[in-house]
Amino acid sequence: MKSALVVRHKCYEGAAGFRLPIEQAGYDFARIDVTDPGFATLDWTAPDLLVVMGGPMGVYERDAHPWIDGEIAGLKARIAADLPTLGVCLGSQMIAAALDARVYPGPVKEVGFAPIALSAAGFASALRYLEGLPLLHWHGDTFDLPANAELLATTHAYAQAFRVGPRLLALQCHPEMGEDPRFALWLEGADAYLAEAGTDPATVAADYTRLGPAAVAAGRRMLAEWLAGLA
Asked: Which residues does 110 contact at the CB level (< 8 Å), separation at least 6?
């Protein structure tokens, strides 16, 4: 059986809705947290599929999170080997950094449900399932588009998705989120952060209940097609 490894930067930011299509595609699903003792010696080229999830830290906060350098080095090795890799939110920023692009705090925090705008390449990709649907966003950092990367989607403020070839996909938005009850943990203590983004926990929670199921269903269709293309 093929192996899929999910890297978690926080225990409450896992594969969520993406787990189902990963398992349906025939992958043996496993996860590792950056706090696990084995993370420092992880062989980043071993899994058939690597999925790097989100987290509240910034790529540039390396003094506070010494594991970041090792993660970027591991992603560099994996990308050089052209192995299937998916990054979500912080994961997309880690991939951008591994491709030597700048990752930095953006001018605004983007939090809540909003649609993404697809490029021509995005429409021709599995991301077409996401077109027009409000998806969850939760970030204040952004990145420059890496060299040789193809921009797939944007919002008014930021790049939202890019790819490098058929095996590397980076998503700034969260199409895996919409039904995972751990989202309640995202909202705990986030009042000030959400206020900076012009919203509040009650609004985001209500939108999660109302808009989340359709968003995650589309995210699953998108990921299933991308995984099928790897074969």
From this structure: 137, 138, 139, 140, 155, 157, 158, 197
DSSP string, 162-212: EESSSSEEEESSBTT-SS-TTHHHHHTT-HHHHHHTT--HHHHHHHHHHHH
Positive/negative CA dihedral, 43, 45, 50, 53:
positive
Please tell me the total count of domains within the chain: 1
β strands within 123-228, DSSP E: 135-143, 150-154, 159-163, 168-171
Residue 74 pLDDT level (bands cut at 50, 70, 90):
very high
Q: CATH number, domain at 175?
A: 3.40.50.880
Query: How high is the pLDDT of residue 231?
Result: 83
Instruction: Name the pTM for this structure.
Output: 0.97
- Among 157, 161, 134, smallest CA distance to 146 is for 161
For residue 214, the enclosing domain spans 2-230
Half-sphere exposure of 48 (CA within 13 A, CB side): 14
C-alpha–C-alpha distance, residues 19 and 3, integer Å? 13
Q: Considering the chain, what is the average pLDDT of its residues?
A: 97
